[in-house]
User: Which sequence fits this backbone?
C-alpha cells in the first residue's frame, strides 16, 4: 500500500468498425430493423409511408407511449413492473379534464380559455400522477407487496376511478392552450425548429467532446478522432434530418386560412407554411435527455442500476432501496401524467377508454428496447426506439390494410421474437 | 505489491496499553423466529489487531458480524467504539463509524464496472452534482495498481471478471475509504493459493497501519498464521476467546468441535 505509481493503460486491440465506434450493437440492430420496416412499408404502400406527413404523424402517435416507456425502463431495471400506467394515464387525464372544464370555470370562475387554466391544469395533473406513483412505490418498497400485485390492483382501481370521476362521459372541449401539447395543434414552426435543431446538434457534439476531454485528461484510452467524428455526423444527420422532415410537412391550406381568419387577417395567396417540431415531440426529447443524464450521471441513476444488478449489495452499500423504490414509482406516475397531457391534448378530449392497453405497449417498448426483465440492464433511447418500432409496425399495417386482428397478432409475435433475438445475442456475447 | 515477510506481528497490537478497545461488542443477542442465532456474545478488537472468528457453519459468526456492519439489528446488547456507545441501525451508520466489510458474497453489483462498485453509495460528485466517472476511474486505477497490478478490466461489468479479480474489487472497496475497523468474511474462500497469499500480505499491511480486523475463516491454519486472538462460537454462544500464542491447532479444533475451552490457559 506504499506504492502509488499508476499502472500503464494499455491500448485495446479493437477488431472491427463497430467496436471502434463503441456503438451498441443492439442499438444498431434496432435502428436497422426500424429502417428496414420503414422502407418495406414504403414499397408496399407505393411511397405513402415515408412522406413528411406520415412521419410527422408517426412521431406524434409514438410520444405518449414513449414517455411512459422511459419511466418503465427504471421500473424494470430495478426488477419491478408497473401494470397500472395506462390506468394511471386515464385517471390523471380525467383529473385534468375535470379541472379545466368543471373545477376552474365553475368553482374559481375562470373561463375555459383563461390564460392560467392550462398551467393550473397541468400542475394539478402532474401532482396527482406523482402522488399516486409515490403511493404505489411506498406499498412496494415499505410494505413489500410485490409490484406486480400493487400495480395489478392499481390497474383496476385507477381505470375505474377515472370512470367514476367523469361518469364515463367524454369530456371536451378542452382548453385551447392545453391542446397545443397534443401535436398538430402546437408546433414550433419552421424557423424555431431549425434553431432548435442546430442548438441540439451543437449540444450533442459538445457533450461528445467534453466526455472525450475528461477521459484524456486522466490518460484513459479514447476513441480515434475519425470514430468520434462519424458518431457526431450520425447524430447531426438524425437531428437535422428530422427537423427537415417535419418542416417539409406543410400545414393544409384550409387550416392555414382558418388560422389567419382567427387572427382577423387574410392569408396571402400561395403561402406554404411547414409545421416544424411538434411540442409533444419536444417534451419527449426533454424527458429522454434528462432521464439519460439521470441514468448515467447521477447517484440516483447509479443506485437504480446497482439495485437492479444486486439488491442486497445495494442495501449493504448503504443505499436506501426502499426510498429509491418510492422515487422510481413517483417518477413513473409523473411521466404517466405527462403522457396524459399529450394523449388527451392529441385527442382534443378526455374519453373513458384513453390509455387502454397502454401498459402492455409501454412494457413491450421497454423490453424490445433491450431492458432485461431480470433487472440491471436497459436504456432510455432503446425504449423510445422500441416504442417507435411498435408504432411504425402498427400504423404501417393499418396503411397497408391489414385487418385489425392480424395487426395485434403480428405485434404480439414481434415482441416475443425481439426478446428471443436479444437472448441469443446476449448468449453469444458471453451471457452478460 | 511488494512481498512482506509473513511472520506474525503480535507486538503491533494496541492491546494492553491501557487504551479502550477499538470495538467492543457487549452481550449481543439476536434471534430469528425463536432461534437464537447469537446468544449473549461479547467480543472486542484493539487497533492493529486481527481477531479470528471461528466456528462451524451456523455457529453465528456471520450473524454477529452483520450486527456490526449494520446489515442486521441486534435484539439486545451494546456496541462501543473507542469506548463510546454507538447506534448502528443500517450499513450507512457502520460506514460513518469507519467500519468496512468484505462480505462472503462480495456484495458486488454484477452489472456495473469495478469503479462504480468501488464507489457505490459514496460517488465522487462534480460541482454540478453529477457523478465524476473520470475522477473515480483514476482513483480506482490507483488502488487496483496497489492491490492487484494485473487488473485491467476497468470498463467491463464485474460479472465478466474472474473470482480473484472480483475479490480484489471488494477488498479495494473496503480499504479505499480509510477503514479503521475491517470485517473480512471468508476473504479467501474463492481464491487460489497465489491470491490467498496476497490477501495474507494485505492483512499484515493493514495491521501495521493500526487497522483492527475481524477475520472470519474456516481454515484453522490461516487463523493461526494471521490472527492475534481467536474467538470461537458454537450454536450461537461464545465458547471462548484465546491468545493464538497460547494455543495449538488442536486446541482451536477442539474448541470448535467440542465447544470446550482448552485446559485453563488463562493469562
Assistant:
Amino acid at each position: 500500500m506504499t506504492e502509488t505509481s499508476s499502472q500503464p493503460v494499455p491500448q485495446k486491440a479493437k477488431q472491427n468498425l463497430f467496436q471502434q465506434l463503441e456503438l451498441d450493437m443492439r442499438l444498431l440492430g434496432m435502428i436497422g430493423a426500424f429502417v428496414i420496416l420503414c422502407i418495406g412499408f414504403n414499397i408496399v404502400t407505393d411511397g405513402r409511408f415515408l412522406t413528411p406527413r406520415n412521419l410527422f404523424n408517426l412521431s406524434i402517435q409514438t410520444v405518449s407511449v414513449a414517455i411512459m416507456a422511459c419511466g418503465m425502463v427504471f421500473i424494470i431495471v430495478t426488477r419491478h413492473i408497473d401494470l397500472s400506467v395506462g390506468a394511471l394515464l386515464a385517471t390523471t387525464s380525467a383529473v385534468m379534464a375535470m379541472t379545466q372544464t368543471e373545477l376552474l370555470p365553475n368553482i374559481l370562475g375562470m373561463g375555459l380559455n383563461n390564460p392560467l387554466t392550462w398551467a393550473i391544469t397541468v400542475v394539478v395533473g402532474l401532482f396527482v400522477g406523482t402522488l399516486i406513483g409515490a403511493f404505489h412505490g411506498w406499498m412496494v418498497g415499505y410494505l413489500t407487496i410485490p409490484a406486480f400485485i400493487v400495480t395489478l390492483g392499481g390497474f383496476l382501481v385507477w381505470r375505474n376511478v377515472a370512470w367514476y370521476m367523469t361518469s364515463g362521459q367524454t369530456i371536451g372541449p378542452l382548453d385551447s392552450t392545453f391542446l397545443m401539447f397534443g401535436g398538430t395543434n402546437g408546433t414550433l414552426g419552421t424557423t424555431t425548429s431549425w434553431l432548435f435543431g442546430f442548438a441540439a446538434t451543437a449540444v450533442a457534439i459538445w457533450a461528445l467532446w467534453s466526455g472525450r476531454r475528461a477521459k484524456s485528461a486522466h490518460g484513459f484510452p479514447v476513441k480515434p478522432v475519425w470514430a468520434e467524428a462519424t458518431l457526431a455526423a450520425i447524430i447531426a444527420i438524425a437531428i437535422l434530418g428530422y427537423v427537415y422532415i417535419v418542416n417539409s410537412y406543410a400545414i393544409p391550406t384550409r387550416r392555414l386560412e382558418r388560422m389567419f381568419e382567427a387572427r382577423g387577417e387574410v392569408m396571402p395567396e400561395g403561402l406554404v407554411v411547414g409545421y416544424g417540431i411538434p411540442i409533444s415531440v419536444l417534451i419527449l426529447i426533454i424527458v429522454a435527455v434528462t432521464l439519460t443524464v439521470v441514468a448515467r450521471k447521477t447517484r440516483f441513476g447509479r443506485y437504480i442500476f446497482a439495485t437492479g444488478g444486486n439488491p442486497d449489495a445495494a442495501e449493504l452499500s448503504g443505499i436506501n432501496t426502499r426510498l429509491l423504490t418510492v422515487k422510481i414509482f413517483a417518477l413513473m406516475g409523473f411521466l404517466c401524467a405527462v403522457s396524459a397531457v399529450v394523449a388527451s391534448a392529441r385527442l382534443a378530449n378526455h374519453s373513458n377508454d384513453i390509455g387502454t392497453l397502454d401498459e402492455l405497449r409501454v412494457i413491450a417498448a421497454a423490453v424490445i428496447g433491450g431492458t432485461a426483465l431480470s433487472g440491471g440492464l436497459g436504456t432510455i433511447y432503446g425504449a423510445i426506439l422500441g416504442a417507435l418500432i411498435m408504432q411504425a409496425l402498427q400504423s404501417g399495417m393499418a396503411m397497408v390494410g391489414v385487418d385489425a386482428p392480424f395487426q395485434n397478432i403480428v405485434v404480439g409475435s414481434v415482441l416475443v421474437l425481439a426478446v428471443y433475438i436479444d437472448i441469443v445475442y446476449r448468449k453469444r456475447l458471453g451471457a452478460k | 505489491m511488494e512481498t512482506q515477510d509473513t511472520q506474525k506481528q503480535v507486538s503491533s497490537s494496541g492491546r494492553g496499553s491501557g487504551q479502550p478497545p477499538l470495538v467492543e461488542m457487549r452481550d449481543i443477542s439476536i434471534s430469528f423466529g425463536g432461534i437464537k442465532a447469537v446468544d449473549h456474545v461479547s467480543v472486542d478488537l484493539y487497533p492493529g489487531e486481527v481477531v479470528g472468528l471461528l466456528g462451524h457453519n451456523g455457529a453465528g459468526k456471520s450473524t454477529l458480524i452483520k450486527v456490526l456492519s449494520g446489515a442486521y439489528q441486534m435484539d439486545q446488547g451494546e456496541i462501543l467504539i473507542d469506548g463510546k456507545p454507538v447506534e448502528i441501525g443500517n450499513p450507512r451508520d457502520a460506514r460513518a463509524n469507519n467500519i468496512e466489510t468484505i462480505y462472503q458474497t462480495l456484495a458486488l453489483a454484477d452489472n456495473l464496472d469495478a469503479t462504480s462498485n468501488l464507489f457505490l453509495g459514496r460517488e465522487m460528485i462534480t460541482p454540478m452534482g453529477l457523478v465524476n466517472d473520470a475522477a473515480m476511474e483514476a482513483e480506482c486505477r490507483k488502488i487496483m495498481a496497489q492491490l492487484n497490478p494485473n487488473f485491467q478490466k476497468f470498463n467491463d461489468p464485474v460479472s465478466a471478471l474472474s473470482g480473484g479479480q472480483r475479490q480484489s474489487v471488494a477488498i479495494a472497496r473496503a480499504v479505499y475509504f480509510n477503514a479503521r475497523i475491517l470485517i473480512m468474511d471468508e476473504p479467501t474462500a474463492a481464491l487460489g493459493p497465489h491470491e490467498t497469499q496476497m490477501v495474507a500480505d494485505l492483512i499484515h499491511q493493514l495491521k501495521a497501519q493500526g487497522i483492527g480486523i475481524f477475520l472470519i475463516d474456516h481454515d484453522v491454519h490461516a487463523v493461526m498464521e494471521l490472527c492475534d486472538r481467536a474467538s470461537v462460537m458454537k450454536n450461537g454462544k461464545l465458547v471462548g476467546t484465546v491468545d493464538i500464542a497460547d494455543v495449538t491447532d488442536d486446541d482451536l479444533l477442539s474448541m470448535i468441535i467440542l465447544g470446550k475451552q482448552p485446559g485453563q490457559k488463562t493469562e
Remarks:
- Residues 12-98+178-258 of chain B form a domain with the Rossmann fold fold (CATH 3.40.50.300).
- Chain B touches chain A through 47 residues (CB under 8 Å).
